Amino acid sequence: MTPNRPLAGKVAVVAGATRGAGRGIATMLGEAGATVYVTGRSTRGNPQTEGRPETIEETADMVNARGGIGIAVRTDHTVEADVKALFERVDREQNGRLDILVNDVWGGDALSQWNTPFWEHSLDNGLLMQQRAVHSHIITSHYGVPLMVRRGEGLVIEITDGSDYRYRGTLYYSLAKISAIHLAEAMAADLKPHGVTALSLTPGFLRSEAMLDIFGVTESNWRDGVEQDEHFAQSETPSYIGKAVAALAGDPNVREKSGKSFMSGDLAEEYGFFDTDGSRPNWNTYYKKTFQQPPEL
């Protein structure tokens, strides 16, 4: 381990690393020196998300380019046999070592119906969202966490949207995102005697590949999107939450955070890192200042 590669020798699995936050997390773990198993359903020549070209092999290449070791493994995290085989492979190839498990599987964007009461929302889509974004996390932890328990150490991170239990505007989306927070809290309780940490983490306004497309911009000219939405000025790259994960994984006192929920911008201030452009957005602070200000008398 060196100061520039604090996670050298560490082994990570990033579930749902094809794009967005998962890709940012995988690449930043690679930059810190980790071996990263990059999982998801979209592979070269066989993309699984309509309209999205990204693949797990591309993400693994990015991990390698950053100095880590990227290993792409096609995995449908809703399929128990796939997940079981994944961790059997990690166990075999890494001599039983797994230091970091990040549950970032989502797949719910196309299933969400906003401004729709739950009884009018597609029931099939709502239930499928829970399968993709909640059941998949449970299955993944069920097979991944025993490798950590066996060694008496490790870090499990649930990626979600928001750090509290407030309603998020539509029932099925809200249920999925809040479930991830409680999964971390519940796992932390069970894992406490075994030396394994579990916590949840949320980005702020994530400037993902899909979000850039929605705004009709690229990462090089993303600020042009502020003309459409002033809040876009507070957005952050997927690398920002990736740096948060790397910082948590390298913190010798991370167990003190077990069971709690965190935001990327707050951790940036705590650990002293910046986004790729040198900025340090904090959506938590911005949201409270902008949307939760008490009315003026």
From TrEMBL:
Coiled-coil portions: none
The organism's place on the tree of life at top rank: Bacteria
InterPro entries: NAD(P)-bd_dom_sf, SDR_fam
UniProt cross-references to SUPFAM superfamilies, sorted A to Z: NAD(P)-binding Rossmann-fold domains
UniProt cross-references to NCBIfam families, sorted A to Z: PRK08303.1
Name this polypeptide is given: SDR family NAD(P)-dependent oxidoreductase
Native source organism of the sequence: Paenibacillus ginsengarvi
Classification lineage: Bacteria, Bacillati, Bacillota, Bacilli, Bacillales
